[in-house]
Design a protein that fits this description.
Elements: H1 12-22, E1 24-26, H2 28-49, H3 52-55, H4 71-78, H5 82-101, H6 105-122, H7 130-142, H8 154-159, E2 168-170, H9 172-194, H10 204-209, H11 223-227, H12 230-252, H13 257-274, H14 280-283, H15 285-290, H16 295-312, E3 315-319, H17 324-335, E4 342-346, H18 361-366, E5 369-371, E6 377-379, H19 381-390, H20 398-401, H21 407-419
Parallel strand pairs: 3-4
Antiparallel strand pairs: 1-2, 3-5, 5-6
Helix pairs in contact: 2-5, 2-7, 5-6, 6-7, 7-9, 9-12, 12-13
Length: 444
């Protein structure tokens, strides 16, 4: 947890600024939020690609937002040929997937963000809404730093960081995102108070209940009842204003924060159930609310899960601790295992045969093995197949790795890599010192 502000009046302001924005704290929240941002962008943009001729190509009816883009940008984008638009769609798709997976996260995020602006400039008719503007601000904040690639990302695997969720970074990006969502709630509440037809002197919610079926309000259960009770509609409208304008204060006050987050979730669920609103409201704002959860609390939850698996007895991954390539591979497996389901065992340091008679030094030297708590033993490519079923972060790959017949290709490839890890693979960065233990080195 961050240190409290300094009690010295002369240094209190600097101390509070340090505590609020610059203190280094775990960055795993941004890794999880990156996935939510990528999902929101994809759900908002990819459906518009399904009708390229109607939305973006030269045959489309297009509208522009001169208040958002300069005339020069709009003129250039409007003159792009169709092949260039298709190319931008392809580049955007690749960048989006890389950002989702956390591969070269910052660069991928920048390219994805440029793609968002490009298609917004090409035609604002389908995506030019306030919610999309909010999403663009969120994406921009996410790509200012590489922090979102620290956890739950391919970048963490490339670095070989075995515990990326412990990495500490300055908290200021997460704080700015918190301020963004707090300001959004407050401003939307303020607009209902000050705009023409404001909710204090009029009763817009009541009139919404009487709008046509194809309007903003859905045909939800209870709509007819609300339409018949204007006083109740007025009270609900006042409650919405109070909720939106006070929620930021409850979110920043630690004692009320859990209730504020729950209230925010309920608010957005009811919003989607009762109104025709963009998917951004459901897929972006709840994850923004979760950014108010203390990152140390998330790390503590992971530690409790790791301790639970340690007491239950994790599955054992038997590897060659004398091989730099094997150690680097183990670090990547551990990065995919934040809850500690897998316990590494160096067969050169312990008697692996005591775990299972089949784990002889020769067998352990030839390939990696996974000994599950059920007693099932898998080796080589089959071990990685079983890992894809054991580790939740590998579940998306499990259907591919466990395709029938894939072992006919995967097993020989794995065995070739295993046989050559002491010579050919010395070019691998983990073996730069050329200090791997040779096959004939005695096992302790």
């Amino acid at each position: 947890m961050p240190e409290p502000c300094d009690t010295n009046p002369e240094t209190r302001l600097a101390s509070c600024w340090e505590r609020a924005f610059l203190a280094e704290r775990p960055s795993l929240s941004l890794g999880l939020f990156r996935i939510a941002v990528a999902a929101t962008v994809g759900l908002h943009i990819f459906p518009t690609f399904l009708q390229m001729e109607d939305n973006y190509l030269s045959t489309a009816f297009r509208e522009y937002n001169p208040l958002f883009f300069t005339a020069g940008v709009l003129k250039w984008v409007d003159g792009n040929p169709d092949w260039f638009v298709w190319m931008m769609a392809g580049v955007f798709t690749v960048a989006w997937l890389a950002f989702l997976l956390g591969a070269f996260t910052q660069i991928a995020g920048i390219v994805m963000d440029v793609g968002c602006y490009y298609f917004y400039a090409r035609n604002c008719l389908h995506i030019g809404t306030l919610s999309y503007d909010i999403l663009l601000v969120t994406v921009f904040l996410m790509i200012v730093t590489p922090y979102p690639g620290d956890s739950f990302s391919l970048d963490a695997l490339i670095r070989g960081d075995p515990e990326p969720w412990r990495r500490s970074r300055p908290i200021f990006i997460q704080r700015l995102l918190q301020l963004q969502v707090a300001a959004t709630y407050f401003c939307t509440g303020l607009c209902k108070w000050t705009a023409s037809g404001n909710w204090l002197t009029d009763n817009p919610y009541y009139y919404l209940m009487h709008s046509p079926p194809e309007g903003v309000i859905k045909a939800f259960s209870g709509r007819a009842f609300l339409a018949a009770h204007p006083d109740l509609c007025y009270a609900i409208g006042i409650g919405i204003i109070l909720c939106e304008m006070t929620l930021p204060f409850w979110l920043f006050w630690r004692r009320s924060r859990p209730f504020a987050i729950a209230a925010g979730f309920i608010f957005h669920i009811l919003l989607v159930v009762t109104m025709h609103v963009p998917t951004i409201f459901l897929f972006l704002f709840p994850p923004l609310l979760l950014l108010f959860v203390e990152p140390e609390s998330l790390v503590a939850w992971l530690e409790r899960r790791r301790e639970r698996w340690r007491l239950q007895g994790p599955a054992r991954l038997i590897y060659d601790g004398g091989c730099g390539f094997c150690r680097a591979s183990l670090a990547r497996v551990q990065a995919l295992d934040p809850t500690g389901r897998i316990g590494p065992v160096d067969f050169r340091s312990v008697n692996a045969a005591s775990l299972n008679p089949a784990l002889t030094p020769e067998a352990c030297h030839a390939r990696i093995h996974l000994l599950e708590t059920s007693g099932r033993l898998s080796g080589g490519f089959d071990a990685f197949r079983r890992l894809s079923l054991c580790l939740p972060m590998l579940w998306p790959l499990a259907p591919l790795l466990n395709l029938p017949g894939l072992g006919l290709i995967g097993a020989p490839v794995y065995d070739w890599v295993s046989r050559n890890r002491f010579n050919l693979l010395h070019r691998f960065h983990a073996c730069e010192e050329n200090a791997c233990v040779r096959p004939d080195t005695p096992v302790r």
